[in-house]
Design goal:
- The chain is an alpha/beta fold.
- About 50% of the residues lie in helices and about 15% in strands.
- It has a 4-stranded parallel beta sheet, with helices on both faces.
- Helix 2 crosses helix 3.
């Protein structure tokens, strides 16, 4: 994300780039898929609000997009969101990933693994799904998804979009984009749409 960060800084935006807990160089042993991460985001918002009174937005992709949706639902100090290539249900995406890598579906085993994850990481694994969060989001939201995403189906992105309570929202389908190359496939026209939304 460093190239995006530099572009935003060059365009005059203030920027706080973070690693989620248990990612990158952040502390933490476990990811909680938004259950605790949304609280971390609220602490970052506390910090930003203490520094200035400018509007705050959040930009997240994949898991980061799911965390961003949960954060938008719980912290109304966040004015807008840019959400890319994320899932609508934690349960469903776990089962999809299991099937993708194992070659078969075994839902009861995944259900147990989700429960075990919550037990180990000390969070309620029956977390609010991103789609459920969307029903409580009234801020402006820009969503995008790659048409060729074979990790997280664009169907999930559209479920989230349809569930949004926001009056101002936009969904962009990016042709030829998979899960990891949304920006490359979308190119400059994609970024022009994103920055027009931010403006």
């Amino acid at each position: 994300f460093s190239s995006l960060a530099n572009r935003m800084l060059d365009s005059g935006y203030n920027l706080l780039a973070i690693d989620l807990r248990a990612h990158g160089i952040s502390d933490g042993t476990y990811c909680t898929f938004g259950a605790k991460e949304k609280e971390d985001i609220s602490m970052f918002v506390d910090f930003l609000k203490s520094e200035n009174k400018l509007p705050i937005g959040i930009w997240g992709r994949s898991l980061g997009g799911a965390v961003a949706l949960q954060s938008l639902a719980t912290d109304k100090r966040i004015s807008f969101g840019i959400i890319e290539s994320t899932f609508s249900s934690f349960d469903n995406i776990c089962k999809d990933y299991f099937e993708k890598y194992a070659g078969f579906r075994l839902d009861f085993l995944v259900d147990f693994a989700i429960w075990r994850t919550g037990y180990l990481a000390n969070f309620n694994a029956d977390i609010e799904h991103p789609k459920e969060s969307c029903a409580r989001i009234t801020q402006q939201v820009f969503m995008a998804h790659g048409c060729e995403d074979d990790f997280i189906s664009m169907h999930y992105g559209k479920e989230n979009f349809d569930a949004l309570a926001s009056k101002q929202k936009e969904f962009v389908e990016v042709p030829l984009a998979g899960h990891a190359n949304l920006w490359q496939a979308g190119g400059e026209p994609y970024f022009q749409k994103v920055f027009a939304f931010i403006h």
